[in-house]
Write a structure and sequence with these properties.
- There is one protein chain.
- This protein is an alpha+beta fold.
- The protein has 2 domains: 66 residues, Winged helix-like DNA-binding domain superfamily/Winged helix DNA-binding domain (Arc Repressor Mutant, subunit A), CATH 1.10.10.10; 200 residues, Beta-Lactamase (2-Layer Sandwich), CATH 3.30.450.
- The protein has 10 helices and 8 strands.
- The strands form 2 sheets. The chain has a 6-stranded antiparallel beta sheet with strand order 5-4-3-8-7-6. Strands 1-2 form a two-stranded antiparallel sheet.
- Strand 3 and strand 4 form a beta hairpin.
- The N terminus and C terminus are likely disordered.
Amino acid sequence: MEEQEDESPIKSVRKAIDILDALSDARRALRVGEIASKLNMSVSAVSRLIATLSKGALVHQDEETGRCYLGLGLTVLGANVLGRRAIDRIAMPIMDELANRIRGYVSLSRLSRGKVVLMRALPSPLSQHGVNLVVAAPVHACAPGKILCGGLSTAEIHELIKSQGMDPITTHTIAQPAPFIAAVEAGRADGFAIDDQESAYKHRHVACPIFDHNGNVVAALSGGGALVDFPWSELPALIQALNHGSLRISRELGFVGEANVNLEAFDEERSESSALANREAS
């Protein structure tokens, strides 16, 4: 049935968001009819909303094929998100300092819409315009995801990975719920999490939690880079540096508790990783 012309603005906004979600989830550009079918909306209603979104560069519709893509205007809006929250202003100088000390990149991560959103500092002077926003990092394939899920219940984690899926990024990616939840629990207990080539081959990352005044995990501070630059022997120092940095940010947010790391757990993880590497090499 055709939507009423006097449909409320709130419903129109909700449907516009649904269109953006459909285009985001699709692996290819979609025609208006395909979007209408996915969302159980009329073609005319989708066409009107696409036209409105296109005016704001939030959607791009190819003139020849009629297929719709997410617009570059979303990138502009996303870039303008950075540096405007209190935690961003607190973290940016600390991230800059850490990035230059470890000679690798340092990221501030948060959960949004089931993904990990990273604000990244490189080993050079950091400014708002020089920050790299990385969207849609899957929670199950990165160290910050393990830490951020530490602030969720087991039921919430199951719901999140059910909605987002656990497609492997590399052959090292955790792709089953049980081992991922075990990794989350380990990160919660040990105060840090590692992804060893789980998000990118020949790269390794460590993440530590950031707490608010109530002791809730609200973000993660992570760092790392190429395996050659961050061998296992240097990870304890990286873990300690990130722990110190994350605690400084947490203190500014009003956290008064402790945030210690269990480096004995790191030694166990290193042994397991080395054994796996030896099996793969043999």
